[in-house]
Design a protein that fits this description.
By secondary structure, the chain is mainly alpha-helical. It has three helices and no strands.
Length: about 90
Amino acid sequence: MSIKDIRTFIDWTKEGNSSIQKRSEMFGQRKEEVERQIEEIQVYRECIEFKYNYYKRALEAGTEEIHQNDGEAPKMPLGRLAKISKSEG
C-alpha cells in the first residue's frame, strides 16, 4: 500500500463504524492487485525455469543445436503475461 493509502485508511479508521465498508473495499482492491502480481511473478518464474532448463540441456549436449527440430520442447510462457496485462485494463 502506498503511504497515501495508509493515511486514508488511518483516517477512515478514526471515523469508526461509518467507514467499515470503505476499508473493506480498500483491502478487497489490494487483495486483487496482490493476486495479479503473484500471477505475473509465477509467469516470470516459469520463463526463468524454461531458459534454465534450455541452457542446462544445451550444456549437457555441448551445443544449442539439440533444441533444433525439438518437437517436444515447450514454448516459453511469455504469452500469459500479455493476458495478465490485458486483464488489468
